[in-house]
Amino acid sequence: MAFEYELPNPNTKNPTPNFGEADLVRRSASSVPAPARQLTPVAKLIDVSKCIGCKACQSACLEWNDKRAEIGTNVGVYENPPDLTPEMFTLMRFTEWVNPETQNLEWLIRKDGCMHCEDPGCLKACPAPGAIVQYSNGIVDFVHENCIGCGYCVKGCPFNIPRISQVDHRAYKCTLCSDRVAVGQGPACAKACPTHAITFGTKEEMKQHAADRIKDLKSRGYQNAGLYDPPGVGGTHVMYVLHHADKPEIYAGLAKNPRISPLVEIWKGAAKYFGLAAIGIFAAIGFVHHIVEGPNKVSPEDEENAKRLAGGGRS
Amino acid sequence: MTAYDVESGDQVHPGDPVKVDRYTGVARINHWITAACLILLALSGLALFHPWLFFLTDLFGGGQITGMIHPWIGVVLFFSFLGLFIRFWRANLWKREDGTWLARLQDVIAGHEERLPEVGKYNAGQKAVFWLMSTLIIVLICSGLVMWDQYFAAYTVIEQKRIAVLVHAAAAVVIICVWIVHVYAAIWVRGTIGAMTRGQVTGGWAWRHHRKWLKELVSRNS
């Protein structure tokens, strides 16, 4: 059975969100009660082999999120803008790669953006309660009113995705169109993609669809075609079909084995507790020492000795 | 005679009790600016260090402002401490008796000052605090600049920023512990705080804790 590409049109009659606060599984710098229900995990699948680099996804993203990127300058590359920005949550990255086996020039186009990790490094690093949340369907979202703009998420992210706005000093990234998904629609980029290189559905459906695509690619000679759903971050809710899945790094530096940096793990794990414990222990030692030893007071003899030494007498 | 241990402004006033000028007004102002900065930095830094302490951001007017002013306070502290460093570094150079003093740390802690060598303006503990503070402040300002994305995001790569946040956090924990030692010592050794508030200590205090310094000052007077 072929995958149903068309995403449903909006239900204009009942726009009540079908998930929300009660479905949080993680909340930055705070805890959440275990949700009463488990939403079906969703995923966006980006089939790199079908992408024509039209940037309709970027336009749709700007449109839906009501962002107006500044008009830039041509810096001599196809990327426009040249990097992700606080306004541009997704970016087509272009790579000209010569396949050493065939000597063919391959034009690799990868739609970059938040991968919606199952184990999100941004959320782990975030110090502001509730600024980054994860829903049980896998969507990782930034809650801007709680964001303090510290940039810790940038250090936590294994994919270099979040960008801090110099206007309101808050972090921005792809939301997986959580607002659209909540009312039964797919992400704006998937809706706009003319070649169905971007598809959206449950994670299971997307994996099956990817398997079909990979089979097709293999039959066309792409022996290393495969799915990019990196286990180092627990899998992602944005996945790629790559024709050269053995070399993800050729796609504009896509991480081969992404994981939360051990530095971030230590910083947000052991350091946090050892640090507070060390401070507490030092304070406690001082307290106990004072109770046991009492104050170190100057005696009248000390004053006498000083007087004798200073040779005073004048008073 | 070596004026090694004596700082400008140090002066004995014979009388009953003997009074000794230990810190000039400028040195005290310099110290308290640094102290205020250090406390504000610790509070704002801890607020972002552990979620339990995030409530401390309320003291500064919210998380955004906390994150914004922390580095600026750091800059003020750096220059303020630089003033203290220039003022105090000579008297904090390590001397022979400091090794002996440190070796008898048990007597120090037990308050058996009669078993310790006579020391100059600063004892080995104070010198250790001074040099630790100096080193840690350099580590903190350097790692802090790497983390200061508002102005310096473009100068380092993310991996360097990750190292910086970890180093910054670790150095901050150590400097807070050093600060606790510093404050506790000032409280425990009665008569010390006056040195930084009124600028003076009694002759008896100087005789008990910094006899070499007192003797040097007296001999300079005569």
Helices and strands, with pairings:
The complex is a heterodimer of chains A (315) and B (222).
Chain A: E1 24-27, E2 42-47, H1 56-64, E3 91-98, E4 105-112, H2 121-125, E5 132-135, E6 140-142, H3 152-156, E7 163-164, E8 171-172, H4 178-181, H5 188-192, E9 198-202, H6 203-219, E10 226-228, E11 238-242, H7 262-268, H8 270-293, H9 300-310
Chain B: E1 11-13, E2 19-21, H1 25-49, H2 63-88, H3 96-103, H4 105-110, H5 124-147, H6 149-152, H7 158-188, H8 193-197, E3 200-202, H9 203-209, H10 211-221
Antiparallel strand pairs in B: 1-2, 2-3
Structure write-up:
- The complex is a heterodimer of chains A (315) and B (222).
- Chain A is α+β, with helices and mostly antiparallel strands.
- Chain A folds into 2 domains: 21-260, Alpha-Beta Plaits; 269-310, no CATH class.
- Helices cover 28% and strands 16% of the residues of chain A.
- Chain A has 9 helices and 11 strands.
- In chain A, the strands form 4 sheets. In chain A, strands 9-2-11-10 form a 4-stranded mixed β-sheet. A 3-stranded antiparallel β-sheet of chain A has the order 1-5-6, with no helix packed on it.
- In chain A, a hairpin with a 4-residue loop joins β5 and β6 (140-142).
- Chain A is elongated, with a radius of gyration of 28 Å.
- Chain A starts with 23 loop residues before the first strand and ends in a 5-residue tail after the last helix.
- The relative contact order of chain A is 0.17.
- Chain B is mainly α and 222 residues long.
- Chain B has 10 helices and 3 strands; from the N terminus they run ββααααααααβαα.
- Chain B has a 3-stranded antiparallel β-sheet.
- In chain B, 66% of the residues lie in helices and 4% in strands.
- The model of chain B has no long low-confidence stretch (mean pLDDT 95).
- Chain B has a domain at 8-24 and 127-222: Up-down Bundle (Fumarate Reductase Cytochrome B subunit).
- Chain B has helices at 25-49, 63-88, 96-103, 105-110, 124-147, 149-152, 158-188, 193-197, 203-209, 211-221; strands at residues 11-13, 19-21, 200-202.
- The interface between A and B is large, with 54 and 62 residues.
